[in-house]
Design a protein that fits this description.
The structure is a single chain. It contains eight helices and eleven strands. With about 280 residues, it is an alpha/beta fold. A hairpin with a 5-residue loop joins strand 10 and strand 11. Bound molecules: glutamine. Glutamine binds next to strand 7. InterPro entries: Class_I_gatase-like (IPR029062), PRibForGlyAmidine_synth_PurQ (IPR010075).
Length: about 280
């Protein structure tokens, strides 16, 4: 069974929704306090996918996600001076997956794991206060970038999801970074308007993000982060307009966010089968 590690503690508050998403997608979720990982009691390497949920880690002090990102980068988890970031780099090199939602996305961006164009985990973009100057709590519509290579978004064209954040505005500091992100489709999700076009117009784009960008991946597609909350749209009944949609013949019981979790679980199941298959063939000569 695919094993999903979900971190919590220090003000993270979306871990149960995350766990529900993996359970519905057929994986086994384990919620672990960050200290258990930082103190070496739990190893991320025993899992297939590492998850950073939303919330208000460290009270958003110094900027959302900044303190947690610094703990991952600088806090030594062993006498040998290893950090959790060292472990995460190995985890990714092993072909495993990392997902950050909202505050989790902020952590991955502040750490430099997203977009990680240069491969040296140095911050290249940032997330800052919404252009509205307010916390935004609303539903938005996203379009998946067809250039994106991430298995998380396979087969998805468009999805509706809620946002709830104060610091969701992606800022891309220069043209070179912007071009590199666009050229490889790392801006995997954009906010769209009622016509289906990418937009910087409020409230369709709830925070004024550059590139109308709601989510990023790294070049491998293994690290994925987004501001909206797919784990809050697991059932059709999570949608504020479910009754009207139902009357209009929209019959699925599943929420649109669930597909992302089903995608990654299926992908991991496929790769596990493949590696089992290979080792069986090798042992049979
Ligand atoms: N829901 C969240 O994860 C919110 C993230 C962060 N605390 C913000 O307000 O931007």
């Amino acid at each position: 069974m695919v094993q999903a590690l979900i971190l919590t503690g220090f003000g993270i508050n979306c871990e149960e929704e995350f766990a529900a998403a993996y359970r519905l997608a057929g994986a086994e979720p384990t919620i672990v306090h960050l200290n258990q990982v930082l103190h070496g009691q739990v190893s991320i390497h025993d899992f297939d996918i590492l998850n950073f949920p939303g919330g208000f880690s460290f009270g958003d002090d110094l900027g959302s996600g900044v303190v947690l990102a610094n703990k991952l980068r600088y806090r030594q988890t062993s006498a040998a001076g290893r950090t959790l970031l060292d472990d995460i780099k190995r985890f990714i090199a092993d072909g495993k997956f990392v997902l950050g939602i909202c505050n989790g996305f902020q952590v991955l961006v502040k750490l430099g794991l997203l977009p990680n164009l240069g491969g040296d985990v140095t911050p290249e973009v940032t997330l800052t206060h919404n252009a509205s100057g307010r916390y935004e709590d609303r539903w938005v519509t996203l379009r998946v970038n067809p250039l994106s290579n991430t298995p998380f978004l396979k087969g998805i064209d468009k999805l509706e999801v809620p946002v709830r954040h104060g610091e969701g505005r992606l800022v891309v500091p220069n043209d070179l970074v912007r071009q590199a992100i666009e050229a490889s489709g790392l801006n995997c999700l954009s906010y769209i308007d009622a016509n289906g076009d990418g937009t910087s117009t409020y409230p369709f784009n709830p925070n004024g993000a550059d590139l109308n960008c709601a989510g990023l991946t790294d070049p491998t597609g293994q690290v994925f982060g987004l501001m909206p909350h797919p784990e809050a749209f697991l059932s059709a009944y999570n949608h504020p307009d479910w009754a009207r949609r139902r009357r209009a013949g929209w019959l699925s019981e599943e929420g649109e966010g669930l597909q992302i979790f089903q995608n990654i679980v299926e992908h991991l199941q496929g790769s596990t089968l493949l590696s089992n298959e290979i080792s069986r063939r090798v042992s049979q000569g």
